Amino acid sequence: MKVLVTGGAGFVGSHTVVELVAAGHDVQVVENFCNSERWIVERIERITGQPLALDELDIRDHAALLATLKRFQPDAVIHFAALKSVSESAELPARYYDVNVGGTATLLEAMQEVGCARIVFSSSATVYGQPEACPVPESAPVNPGNPYGRTKLIGEWLIRDCVAAPGASLSAAILRYFNPVGAHPSGLIGELPRGVPNNLAPYITQTAAGQRDYIRVFGDDYATPDGTGVRDYIHVVDLAKAHVAALDALVRNEARELTLNLGTGRGYSVLELIETFSSVVGHAIPYQRQGRRVGDIGECWADPSRANHVLGWRAEKSLLDICADAWRWQQACSGRDALDPAVA
Ligand code: NAD
Ligand code: WQD
């Protein structure tokens, strides 16, 4: 199948491109590299052993996007391109709505113009806000607590409205990721946080590598077994495979619209994650308990049974796999030469 991937050099996108190529799909990436690096494309090519088609463009540029779509004539689009920082979205809400909502609208219009009728959309567990109970099913109420989360929810509504429009042929898989972590087992691609990481996993690996003094554990008084926050950490390769399975489900035409949680169905605490990383790294990783981070929730983990059933997919990698792969990637990033494709 011909698959156009927006944001295909990003964290989840790059791993998904690898799985799409492995599954025999013909992939075209569109990217503006606002949160990724050009050499990631070369790394993907090294893993797959094939050249990767790339058009450097902004998804808000309707004319450029349409030109790519007209030339490539995709059977489906997987739409990753978005801005994803919760804290930045509070500072720059208009930019987040412009890229995440406006970019998605531009993409949907261009898809309609070329008759491309399948989309897989990156949504987030953040749309649930503070869950009433865990595990969280797709039927749980949505109430995102920040602008980023609201752009994701509006993206979902926009896509459902396009599916439901009179005469429309669009079908959509809306995938709500829980906490994507880990890296490709090759150590060639992984997450590239800019500046000080907001997210726990890259903060832990950078601390283990000596780049940060200690991990700040945000809150130890939650109603969880050890008092620290509990999340559903899913390996990015498992997540990537779910996208290939979602495309297959759209082709099978099982439903016009699928909204699916992508998680493992198991929660781990901040301290459990630190301990598992410590066992992989081979030494204790320093941490200090601090007050709760504003806007955080105590516990959020998925009921992934719908995705398991509809996609015939389940997350297979363990927390140990996650930590081992993330640590391999961190070590590759720590050596400067390793990040220069001319040297690597
Ligand atoms: P990422 O930032 O690593 O990847 C996004 C990619 O899109 C980047 O390569 C960036 O350069 C590109 N991009 C951004 N704006 C663009 C534009 N206007 N035009 C063209 N390209 C553009 O993020 P990620 O972690 O891979 O996330 C992928 C998707 O999954 C996003 O939609 C994000 O909201 C969603 N998501 C991520 C997480 C997470 O924790 N990583 C969780 C839930 C949902
Ligand atoms: C995990 C746990 C923190 C950092 C965020 C977004 C969400 C999604 C994924 C895109 C929590 C604790 C963290 C640190 C800590 N992104 N923590 N010290 O908050 O579940 O989700 O990223 O859709 O929208 O909100 O992930 O990795 O930031 O935090 O103690 O330095 O780690 O309190 O319990 P979160 P996270």
Layout of helices and strands, plus pairs?
Layout: E1 2-6, H1 11-22, E2 26-31, H2 39-48, E3 53-56, H3 62-72, E4 76-79, H4 86-91, H5 93-114, E5 118-124, H6 147-164, E6 171-177, E7 179-181, H7 200-208, E8 215-218, E9 230-231, E10 233-235, H8 236-252, E11 257-262, E12 268-269, H9 270-281, E13 287-290, E14 299-300, H10 305-311, H11 319-334
Helix pairs in contact: 1-2, 1-8, 3-5, 5-6, 7-9, 7-11, 9-11
The structure holds nicotinamide-adenine-dinucleotide and UDP-4-deoxy-4-formamido-beta-L-arabinopyranose.
Q: Summed up, what is this model?
A:
This protein has 344 residues and is an alpha/beta fold. It is built from eleven helices and 14 strands. It binds nicotinamide-adenine-dinucleotide (NAD) and UDP-4-deoxy-4-formamido-beta-L-arabinopyranose.
Explain this structure to me?
- With 344 residues, this protein is of the alpha/beta class.
- 41% of the residues lie in helices and 17% in strands.
- It has one domain (2-334): NAD(P)-binding Rossmann-like Domain (Rossmann fold, 3-Layer(aba) Sandwich).
- The chain is built from eleven helices and 14 strands.
- The model has no long low-confidence stretch (mean pLDDT 96).
- The longest helix has 22 residues, at 93-114.
- The strands form four sheets. A seven-stranded parallel sheet has the order 3-2-1-4-5-6-11, sandwiched between helices.
- The protein has helices at 11-22, 39-48, 62-72, 86-91, 93-114, 147-164, 200-208, 236-252, 270-281, 305-311, 319-334; strands at residues 2-6, 26-31, 53-56, 76-79, 118-124, 171-177, 179-181, 215-218, 230-231, 233-235, 257-262, 268-269, 287-290, 299-300.
